[in-house]
Amino acid sequence: MKIPLVDLRKQHDLLREDLNNLFNDVLDKNNFVLGEYVNNFENDFKNYLNSKYCVGLNSGTAALELGLRALGLGEGDKIATVTNTFIATASSIVNVDADPVFVDSNKNDALINMEQLKELLEKEDIKAVIPVHLYGNVCDMNKLLKLKQDYGFFLIEDCAQAHGAEFEEKKVGTFGDIGSFSFFPAKILGGIGDAGCVITDKEEISEKLYAYRNAGRVKNEKYKHEFIASNHRLMPLQAGVLSLKLKYLDKWIDERRNIAKFYKKELSLNNLNQDNSVYYMYVVLDENRDEIMRKMNEKNIQCGVHYPIPLHLQPAFDFLEHKEHDFVNSEFLCKNVLCIPIYQGMTEEEMKYVVESFKAVVSR
Ligand SMILES: Cc1ncc(COP(=O)(O)O)c(C=O)c1O
Fold this sequence. Notes:
Blueprint: H1 9-14, H2 16-29, H3 36-49, E1 53-57, H4 60-70, E2 78-82, H5 88-95, E3 99-103, H6 114-123, E4 126-130, H7 141-151, E5 154-158, E6 166-167, E7 170-171, E8 178-182, E9 196-200, H8 203-213, H9 236-246, H10 249-266, E10 270-271, E11 282-285, H11 289-298, H12 328-336, E12 337-340, H13 348-363
The structure holds pyridoxal-5'-phosphate.
């Protein structure tokens, strides 16, 4: 049996007829830029999250960058974020000419370390904070909102890995000034290509985002441009796919939680996911993870390492002059995390094969 880390064919087989109909309808409607499908998805997603505005974009990276711009952040502004995340969380800060300031994560849940963040806020004038709900785990939003109240900064939730996750029965993304989402295909809610969005409750921010994604156009005017901007529009086809999949999101999260429950019961391995995680990744910690991964690969089971190098040690961030041991928990995580297959549509047979193989591999 061959098991990939994520198998998207399962969800596309389930939706194949609807996807084919959608493709035909997009061709029939003969409109390939913004329009009805994009408006509908934006409405569907904001209603699902209980947010006021949703602006569809062409990637999660664009969501972070344009989100920062729409908040007026740029040159000279210090923006704090974690170092154990995908590079887009921090490269977006550099791409708007602002200055990233890294904070460590917790060893037990891989989320932003609140004590270190508080120390940083005491010392420096931090204009914005980007916490990441990594692996589908959820940051403590009460603590973040309290810090926001005490120190006054913009809060941008990076929800690329946590669609549908909740903190105290409120969806992530709706706590901060903005929430950014990626719909990269392998995400919990993913397109059939790149896509993303920003959500916000502030009309003024949403208006800026509509302009920033669309050549800086003034609303309802084709050739009047208020800002220098680029093209980051969400495609109608992607929007249609996302609306279709959104109907299944809660069910798919339940499926992920059931797989995780099985893994937790069967595997006596240190697991990083919180109980309320939406399990974008099922993450185990083991000091021999490279060897485990190699042996699992030999058994045709693909595992992943998210992420092997923390951002402060990436060549791209050399200019910040960090060194090893600057963020010890993140470095520990990067050396020890291992993601094992979890996806919607995983069969019992596949789950059992993963567990049996794991048991055989770790008993050495
Ligand atoms: C935490 C996080 N932020 C941002 C992004 C960027 O999203 P995209 O790949 O859609 O640009 C990703 C995607 O991998 C991510 O995992």
